Amino acid sequence: MSEQLIIQSHRGAYTVHFDDTLLSDPARLLEGEPHFLVDANVARLYASSLHAILHHPNAIVIEATEENKSIERTIPVIERLVQNKVRRDHTLVAIGGGIIQDITCFIASTLLRGLSWRFVPTTLLAQADSCIGSKSSINLGATKNILGTFNPPQNIFIHSGFLETLEDRDIRSGVGEIIKVHAIDGIAAFDRLTSDFDRLFDDRAVLLRYTRAALLIKQRYIEQDEFDRGIRNIFNYGHSFGHAIESAAHYAVPHGIAVAIGMDMANYIAAKRSLLPVEHYHRMHSILRKNYGKYARTPIPLDAMLSALMKDKKNTSTMLRLIFPMGDRAEIQQVQVLPDEIFRSQCAEFFVEING
Ligand SMILES: NC(=O)c1ccc[n+]([C@@H]2O[C@H](COP(=O)([O-])OP(=O)(O)OC[C@H]3O[C@@H](n4cnc5c(N)ncnc54)[C@H](O)[C@@H]3O)[C@@H](O)[C@H]2O)c1
Q1: Which residue, by CA, sits nearest to atom 8 of ligand 1?
Q2: CB-ligand 1 contact for 261 (6 Å cutoff)
């Protein structure tokens, strides 16, 4: 076993193991009384290495779709676990990306008033960002991530080999979150990432270095504000717009790519409102645009996007709570914005700008 990262949480410490031997020796995942929740694509692609897990009587294979990450579709999974006689001293083991994580973490928070769970993140987004931080988020019908809990896993096992089978869009989705975390860390960290941007896609060692860097940056915030009542809010940078874009595009845009478009949109509007020097919008735009690429042309109906934005759980009853980079140092901060005609036209202009 190689490197470890220890994260403090309200439940005590948990460990992220960077462990590239996991696929050749997955036996440690069978310890205790496990119930596996496995991403269907991972089950198909890793059928042979995960044979013992997939043929375990308590294995449940789930298609990773936003529809399945809803309260309604979680119920049949809970029913299967109950049929499989899950008990309080058993452990749920999630093997997949952010969707399987959210489903497992949510069920682990509520079933039998709480079960322990472990996580094997198989997407870049989950390895570099979502695996730490304790959050579960579940959709209610079309409203994204409106239900949720804070429930850290017992252990996380990161095997970088899983990235080899990811589609380019899912690598870019993870890179979107890595960009976000580095932008939060400051201009110097963002510029460092920019200088290595192209190598993220063709040098796995560079990608792994930025994965670890992203987790270390996030660790500083989640350990201070695990329950997202203060400083951690800035991790929603790109997310209010991003979730609204995902919802308006019926999830045709992967999460981290929608977040990248969302950051670009936040920067554009902040610059239009003279809250941010326009140079910073351009500095980030060139990298963000490169990362979201052809998704800039995905039809995103403005009314549907604005209506989803209005439902964001962070809003007050009259104001949008958005995260903008502010001032010469582009510090990421929360701001309140009136959803008026000016705001609407700035959103519309942004879509014209990126489509042009
Ligand atoms: N709980 C949190 O803290 C948190 C944070 C960020 C995002 N999220 C949520 O995570 C979700 C996005 O997660 P994601 O980007 O990991 O995507 P995902 O779980 O939707 O997976 C993306 C695609 O990759 C496939 N896949 C997974 N592993 C693979 C592998 N190794 N090889 C090939 N294909 C593989 C999946 O089957 C799916 O088709 C969103 O629902 C988002 O809201 C949660």
Answers
A1: 98
A2: no
Q: What percent of the chain has pLDDT over 90?
A: 93
What is the four-CA torsion angle of 341, 346, 352, 353, rounded to 10 degrees? Answer: 170
Do the domains 169-355 and 4-165 match in fold?
A: no
State how far the Cα of 356 lies from the Cα of 339, in Å rounded to an integer. Answer: 25
How many angstroms is it from 99 CA to the middle of ligand 1? 5
Q: 38 CB under 6 A from ligand 1?
A: no
Q: Enumerate residues 6+ apart whose C-beta is below 8 A from 20.
A: 2, 159, 160, 161
> What fold does the segment set 4-165 form as a domain?
Rossmann fold (3.40.50)
Does the Cβ of 125 fall within 6 Å of ligand 1?
A: yes
In angstroms, rounded to a whole number, what is the distance separating the alpha carbons of residues 242 and 31? Answer: 38
Ligand 1 centroid to Cα of residue 191, in Å, is 27
Structural domain boundaries of the chain?
Answer: 4-165, 169-355
pLDDT by residue (tens digit) across 127-172?
Answer: 999 999 999 999 998 788 889 999 999 999 999 999 999 999 999 9
Phi, psi for 243 (deg, rounded to 5): -60, -40
> What's the CATH code, domain 169-355?
1.20.1090.10
